Amino acid sequence: MKRKRLYLSPPHLTGREKALIVQALDSGWITSVGPQLDEFERRLAARAGVKHAVGVSSGTAALHLSLLALGVGPGDDVICSTLTFAASANPIVYQGARPVFIDSDYATWNMDPNLLEDALRRAAKRGKRPRAVIVVDLYGQCAALTDIRALCRKAGVPLIEDAAEALGATHRGRPAGSFGWANIFSFNGNKIITTSGGGMLATDDGKLAQIARHLSTQARDTAPHYEHTKIGFNYRLSNILAALGLAQLAKLDDRVAARRRNFEWYRAELGRADGLQFMPESSDGTSTRWLTCVLLDPSRFGADRERVRLRLESKDIEARPIWKPMHLQPVFRGATVVGGRVSEDIFRRGLCLPSGSALSRPLVRRVSAEVLAARRG
Ligand SMILES: Cc1ncc(COP(=O)(O)O)c(C=O)c1O
């Protein structure tokens, strides 16, 4: 019998989704308004430790709304982490602005605050202040958010925290997604909790929340007829999907514990292999270990990451290279990058292993055995 494919990070249902969705259907609130959406926003805001949360159709939409609220436009510069998924940077281009990419450091794999400081200093010298900094919390780990926020404050540049991958993580005791002027989460199917597709913009700024709500519902002005003074977007999260989100959010702590447990299991299996290193955990916080990621040194380990990935693939096990840095992407060719070698190295040597929260110890053993079997000789 053929074994089932083992996916990188599949959705994990709690058993409560169906009941809550049926409740939402029965209540008649099946579009973009309703008690489930209000409740999901309230609970997410509480969890993230911010005053307001606006449910939207994706994390990308939340980022786009943040830039729209700032009035980012053609000719503007927006700073962004280079080691991330393209969705972090795409909204900069939607607005006709220019991304300026910043390399990672090895301590967190996230934006290097020293390079950010350089970039802000150089921008000030040229008299061209960036319109925003988008800092990404990669694979469930917060960036050096205290330092990055202080640099942004000093330079007078709004901070947008892309915590799409880091719901449930902390930095110095505070939740991921509470450090920016705007903070975004994703509930895409591969995330730690999912609404099938969806996102949230979280903020302490009531004005930003109000603008985001307005723009996400086609910017309809108050009038009996349809009146518009701004271009709007159809970005609101539906009440039905919010019901899914409520079931999922209630289990967030369990999901974080399961992902961290996966990591410990992998460490027990692979921790002694020469030339294999795990993504470090910053001493400044707790990562959710959304994905367990490793770096391979081919000469010591005996296989490069592609050889390991292909070996896993041949056994129907999905593993993925670390994000390809944005400054290496054809679509961002010519964009400014500050540094770049660290993220290039992490990309070249890094691999994400299956990390779903329903993973079992025997499955982790099986994956680990295949990782080791990929070695030559
Ligand atoms: C770092 C990062 N930013 C933004 C996004 C975009 O989120 P969404 O897929 O909900 O648009 C994702 C994931 O998809 C992500 O991993």
List keywords for this structure.
single chain, 377 residues, alpha/beta, Aspartate Aminotransferase, domain 2, Aspartate Aminotransferase, domain 1, 2 domains, 8-stranded mixed sheet, 4-stranded antiparallel sheet, 15 strands, binds pyridoxal-5'-phosphate
Give me the Rg, rounded. Answer: 21 Å
Give helix and strand order, one letter per element, not per position.
Answer: HHEHEHEHEHEEEEEHHHEEEHHEEHEH
The main sheet orders its strands as 1-9-8-5-4-2-3-14
Low-confidence stretches: none
- Which CATH first-tier class of the largest domain would you pick? Alpha Beta
CATH superfamily of the largest domain: Type I PLP-dependent aspartate aminotransferase-like (Major domain)
Category from helices, strands and their pairing? alpha/beta
Bound small-molecule species: pyridoxal-5'-phosphate
Number of domains: 2
| Level-2 CATH architecture of the largest domain | 3-Layer(aba) Sandwich
Percent of residues in helices? 25-40%
Dominant shape = globular
Structure description:
The strands form three sheets. An eight-stranded mixed β-sheet has the order 1-9-8-5-4-2-3-14, sandwiched between helices. A four-stranded antiparallel β-sheet has the order 10-12-15-13. Strands 7-6-11 form a three-stranded antiparallel β-sheet, with no helix packed on it. It is globular. β6 (170-171) and β7 (174-175) form a beta hairpin. It has 377 residues and is of the alpha/beta class. The protein has helices spanning 17-27, 35-48, 59-70, 90-94, 113-126, 145-155, 206-216, 239-249, 252-270, 298-301, 305-314, 341-349, 361-373; strands spanning 52-56, 77-81, 98-102, 132-136, 159-162, 170-171, 174-175, 182-186, 199-203, 276-278, 285-286, 292-296, 320-321, 336-338, 350-353. It has two domains: 17-249, Aspartate Aminotransferase, domain 2 (3-Layer(aba) Sandwich), CATH 3.40.640.10; 252-373, Aspartate Aminotransferase, domain 1, CATH 3.90.1150.10. Pyridoxal-5'-phosphate binds at residues 58-60, 84-85, 87-88, 136, 162, 164-165, 186, 188, 199. The site of pyridoxal-5'-phosphate has 14 residues, from α3.
